[in-house]
Amino acid sequence: MVSSVTSSGGRFNNVALGTNALNSLTNGDDNVAIGAENATNSTSGKRNTTIGSYSFVENTTGQRNSAYGYLSMWKNTTGNQNTGYGIQSLEQNTTGSYNVGFGAEALAHNLEGVNNTAAGYQTLMNTTANYNTGLGYRAGDVITSGTNNVIIGYDTDPSIAAASNQIVIGASVTGLGDNYAVIGNSSIERLYAASDGAAVLYANSTIQASDRRIKKDIQDLGYGLDYINSLRPVSYYKKDPKDYPQELKDKFYPDGKV
Fold first, then answer.
1. By residue range, what is the domain housing residue 241?
2. 47 within a domain of the structure (yes/no)
3. Which end of the chain is more exposed for a tag (fewer CB within 10 A), N or C?
4. Distances from the Cα of 171 to the Cα of 57, 69, 144, 154, 168, angstroms
């Protein structure tokens, strides 16, 4: 079945294609709805573009939204300037605005959160809060009420669902806490800032681990300067974090994920 809403009453420049598409429109302009039941409850929405069966179904007054895919932005009612691209992207969004969900089920359970950006299958799927960025398969899918997080990489997550201001980058990496930045998983051995050694690290403090409790295969070196003969120069291999003493695990990995 094809329906078409053009210029009549308070409706101007609208296009509807599909059973009940834009069926309730009374006062909206410049909308495009393609697919069965698409934007069927929209009454005064403006400048929305929605493509896919049952996408944008519950919208009433939301404006300047773009939804592409089956059930994309299905629950949106008054949210503005969102973009959902993929099956069930931003599916449960109701009043949230300025969100971008690119990928199947990206930001699917966001209700009122604003300014979130998700790209990837189920990326930031469970977030209900604001200002999160996720890139990669299921990146940040554990976040619920957390805010201001940047999560990049396959199956990478912050330390907790309510995480705040965490940066986590890499494949299957888990953050270490709020206001922490973690780059790379346990297989990463070196971090290069500049190949010529000219990079500068700015920090209030730095830590160079030199704790016997996290070393193994310790051996005496065969050399040493005369004036430091009282010291014991050694070579060693750092232990795997899972073999650290419990008191260090508690300090370095408070969430218990080693």
1. 213-252
2. no
3. N
4. 36, 28, 21, 5, 10
